[in-house]
């Protein structure tokens, strides 16, 4: 029986980042794979000119041009797109999905679930680091001959025993909830797309956004960047936070009204850890770079061998499952495309 024909268009640097040699070789053994060896990212036109005859297409970071109608008019055998990275929205428009992918039953897989592992780990770590002010303690002992800084608190309501607000039950949000499920804390969730029954299954209490900010000692943000979420968190919500509260954002900077955030952190009431900003990076003279109760990291929450190598493994598994007639874990729900990050 002939093996499915797969066109693998990512470049070698992407392959080395997300596939272990063993997993990549396994994919080469399981399928008839044509690897992009040009050393360059392919254009939409090049994909359209070469897609004919392929059963599957593997895309990835730096090698995923928009897949337009021109591509799908030429894709006479295409059955699955396996995206060995996160969001697919830059590749696939709603119009293309409705005109070609849905009628033809073409499956799109996204490895965003693998990346979510890394981001969730970072979010939990940032919550602990920020509320406990570890950075301030470390800098004090490094930059002075003192020990405990007299103006750095070391005792308070940290994560254990607290109420934590999770904004969005995205893949990352759900993994944060999963990681913290054994902990002694109360988790509130704001996500208008989650039903009460689903929230109960997650073991969280579903609340409205203002209530989440009013009740939470700590807040972690995992909402996508969409018109609906743009500046969703503003001065009204931030003012509801209690003194000493913590906010961590590993999602998208546009979710928070940055001017309102700067005004609130200048009061000294809250501490904030931002892995993302809007714009990104922040301007050289942005107050976010100087305020002592703001901790900035340069969009690195998704880093980590664990999640990156899971990208390669889940991509290979998606292809194997599809062509074996099994459900594809990580298949994009086209009806939710507009709400995806």
* Global shape: elongated
Rg, nearest Å: 22 Å
> Which structural class matches the secondary elements?
alpha/beta
Spatial order of strands in the largest sheet? 8-7-6-9-10-11-12
Q: What is the H/E order?
A: EHHEHEHEHEHHEHEHEHEHEHEEH
Low-confidence stretches: none
Largest sheet: 7 strands, parallel
Helix content: 25-40%
Look at the structure and give the CATH class of the largest domain: Alpha Beta
* Proportion of strand residues: 5-15%
Number of domains: 2
**Do you know the CATH architecture of the largest domain?**
3-Layer(aba) Sandwich
The CATH homologous superfamily name of the largest domain equals NAD(P)-binding Rossmann-like Domain
How widely separated are the two ends?
39 Å
Number of helices, counting only DSSP H or I runs of 4 residues or more: 13
Query: What is the CATH fold-level name of the largest domain?
Result: Rossmann fold
Average pLDDT rating: 95
Q: How many E-type strands?
A: 12
Describe this structure in words.
This protein is α/β, with parallel strands linked by helices and 341 residues long. The protein has 2 domains: 5-110 and 305-339, 3-Layer(aba) Sandwich (Rossmann fold); 116-296, Rossmann fold. Helix content is 38%, strand content 14%. It is built from 13 helices and 12 strands. The strands form 2 sheets. A 7-stranded parallel sheet has the order 8-7-6-9-10-11-12, with helices on both faces. The chain has a 5-stranded parallel sheet with strand order 2-1-3-4-5, with helices on one face. The radius of gyration is 22 Å and the shape is elongated. The mean pLDDT is 95.
